[in-house]
Amino acid sequence: MSAKLGLSSPQVSTVRFFVATVLMLGLFRAWPGTLRTANRRLLAARGIFGGLAALLYFAALALIPAGQATLLNNTFPVVAVALSFLALGERPSWQLLLALALASAGVFLVLGGGQAHFSLGWGQLAGIASAFFGAAAITCVRALRADHNAPTVFFAFSLGGLAVSAPFSLGPWTAAPLAWLAALGAALVAFAAQLFMTEAYGALTVAEAAVWQQLTPMAGYLWALALLGERLSPLGAVGVVLGAAGVVYASVPVPRRRERPA
């Protein structure tokens, strides 16, 4: 999509992170004391991992079909659950694992149409790598949210993404207004989405958030239906239902057994 508009994948990523960095600097200037950098190493890791994940996802979008790139990238919640267990000791319940499996199956049916066939080319490798870097970034976010606010963590992501993307954006830039309008619109939407997501990780475990994040590709697919006139296949409809069922099941409280007095 970026190539059709005249901007390369690194250029789209650079615009996104530049806009986010400028907006965050404005926020810190308006509310002094908001920026808190207690753990700079972990903040740097969050920025670098997140920046690499975004850059590789854009690269996959430029090389393979959007549905396949999104499907590969969206395996990051599953990887993040395993990483959070190893690094943070977060043990997901069986209810959350089943809900994540349902939601992930729904994503596969929606984006893959039940007929996803993968060859292992550069685009597929970029999509897989983006998922692993994204999982590492999310694990860093969860660890940081214990003593860092969401704006600080998101600012680290913006700086890291800009540092990773800018060196690959040194070629000629288009002057087409439509390309810039699309890139700026995507940057503003991504800014809001990432800030809300970072805030959510202060209250949700990685496994809990992973289930909810599986709504992202399904929501994107529904937007495509509404705005681009794409048709919903029968398997896609089943996928939407499965994804919604997974999220609802994860939200149902599990009754706890009462402990008998000694």
Question: Could you report the average pLDDT, rounded to the nearest whole number?
Answer: 83
Assign the structural class, choosing from mainly alpha, mainly beta, alpha/beta, alpha+beta, or little secondary structure: mainly alpha
**What percentage of the residues does DSSP assign to strands (E)?**
under 5%
Count the helices. How many? 12
Rg, rounded, reads 19 Å
Low-pLDDT stretches: none
What is the number of E strands? 0
Distance from N terminus to C terminus (CA atoms, Å) equals 65 Å
Helix content: over 70%
Give an overview in words:
This protein has 262 residues and is mainly α. The protein has a domain at 2-92 and 116-205. Helices cover 73% and strands 0% of the residues. The model has no long low-confidence stretch (mean pLDDT 83).
Features:
globular; 73% helix; 262 residues; mainly alpha
